[in-house]
From TrEMBL:
Belongs to the auxin efflux carrier (TC 2.A.69) family. InterPro entries: Mem_transp_PIN-like, Na+/solute_symporter_sf. This is Membrane transport protein. One of its GO terms (biological process) is transmembrane transport. Pfam families: Mem_trans. It comes from Veillonella ratti. One of its GO terms (cellular component) is plasma membrane. The keyword Ion transport does not apply. Its main location: membrane. Keywords: Cell membrane, Membrane, Transmembrane, Transmembrane helix, Transport.
Amino acid sequence: MGLFFHIFWTSVVPILALVAVGFILDKKFNLDLRSLSKLNFFILLPAYVFRSLYTANLTLESVGISVCAFVILFSNSYMALGVSKLLGYDRKKTQIVRNATMFNNGGNIGIAIATFVFSNEPYIVNGQTPYLDAAIVGVIATFIIQTIFCNTLGFYQAGTGLLTRHDALKLVFHMPVLYAAPAALLARLIPYDLTTLVLWSPLHIFANAFVGMAMITLGVQMSRTPYNFLKKDVLVTTSLRLIGGPILAAFVMLLYIVLYEPVNPISAQAVIITYSVPSAVNTALIAFEMNNNPELATQIVMSTTLLSAVTMPLAILFAYYMFPV
């Protein structure tokens, strides 16, 4: 019960508080949602992605975990696609369900939850936290895959329900974040610390602003969205993200261990935990930017965020018993 309240208080409540700020501000001042969306996607998000990938602590183990994260990502995609076909969703709605199922909030909630879990019992040894570094490796490797594909494939999928494939690709190539990810990975090869440059300071400030501004933008979007969390489409996608996600993650990790090579059980636990977190806020912002079922996407993000306070503790226990130390 303590874990439940800790997750709700430290991860869910701060998100709801930021969303509430956007909600209240829009009700009072009728903010320009389109301008907020452009600010997020053309300035703040590219800065956030570049800084995150450039400063990430990558190891050789990260490669194997990244391969698993890649397979899990597309396993989620096919799961969402299959369920959407069974339920007779049109192409536009199917792409929104795929995005919400594939892409999660691992960069914020995932890192916070992993840090808490692996800094407390039963992972403390003689007052130390020897498992924390391995856990963060798993989260960061997963976060990198999520970040790259959410901000490229996510746009493409949201657009294919409305545009031709050519036009959807053209739109993706106009998004700065597409270039931020490879630029950061290439910059890591340069024998010079970019954090010492004068321009790093404004980039750092923009990156810090992204999460707060994204949540406020989501709040503005929420203020214009009818509430219906019991809607069938919302419940189905929420179940895929919060229940199907960690189960698929565990299955893929087991396959990797059996067919290829052993993985640090702590890293495996961290991957499962990361795939149990809510849908990424970006999926709702992308849906608005592409004008593809933004109300449904917003409701899914809020529904998964609220219900994750119940499902994440269960996923943590599931991961603990699946890959014991």
